[in-house]
Amino acid sequence: MSFNENVQIDAGRARSGGGGGGLGGRGIAIGGGGGLLALLLAIFAPGLAEQLGIDTGGGSVGQSQYQQQTGSGGQSQPLSDEECASGADANQNTDCRVIATTEAADEFWGEYLAQFSDIQWRQPQLTLFQGGVSTGCGSASSATGPFYCPADESMYFDTAFFETLQTDFGAEGGPLAEEYIVAHEYG
Questions:
Q1: Backbone angles phi, psi at 2, to 5 degrees
Q2: Backbone angles phi, psi at 109, to 5 degrees
Q3: Are 181 and 44 in contact (CB under 8 A)?
Q4: How far apart are CA 148 and CA 186, in angstroms?
Q5: How far apart are CA 68 and CA 169, in angstroms?
């Protein structure tokens, strides 16, 4: 699937970096596939989990990685509108594709719920990160995979996850598979 090249994207909707801590590293952010692995490693091999960069909920592995990469304490910065301004950018850049897919899903659910239910749509925050992030659910590393944190009503994506699926696991879905994963975080 591709986006209309002329459609406008609001890159200001997404944040890059961390989402600010909520539980001080005591919680565990559980996401697609990586959550079960983190749980098993936390139980059977906690030292190995930390060496692999998987947050088991007892430390600040993800936060430390995030601080090393950004030099900050988890402050989010908006993405540049120039980086992700159009559908053409979404067709070429994974970060922009995640933003555009999120905008499309927000529009769909907002309209659908208003028409067919009494549920008020609450748009989740979107955070793109690299390496690790501190969230309202605790720290998370890239190994967690994409996830939604109910404590801060935010979706978190390290877009290197999509590359890992291709290089390490031979995934062949391209942009449509990426968009499916983004849509999955909506529930």
A1: -130, 165
A2: -65, -35
A3: no
A4: 8
A5: 28
Dist. CA 72–CA 139, nearest whole Å: 15
Local structure of residue 126 (DSSP, 8 states) = E
Give, in degrees to the nearest 5, the angle at Cα 116 between 111 and 122. Answer: 50
Inform me whether the pLDDT recorded for 184 exceeds 90: yes
HSE at residue 24, side-chain half, CA atoms within 13 A, is 0
Integer-rounded Cα radius of gyration of the chain: 17
3 state DSSP class of 103: helix
The domain limits of the chain are 11-184
**Segment 47-91, tens digit of pLDDT:** 544 444 444 444 433 333 333 333 344 444 555 667 899 999 999
Distances (CA, A) of 82 to 10, 11, 89, 154, 158: 10, 8, 9, 23, 20
Neighbours of 105 (CB within 10 A): 18
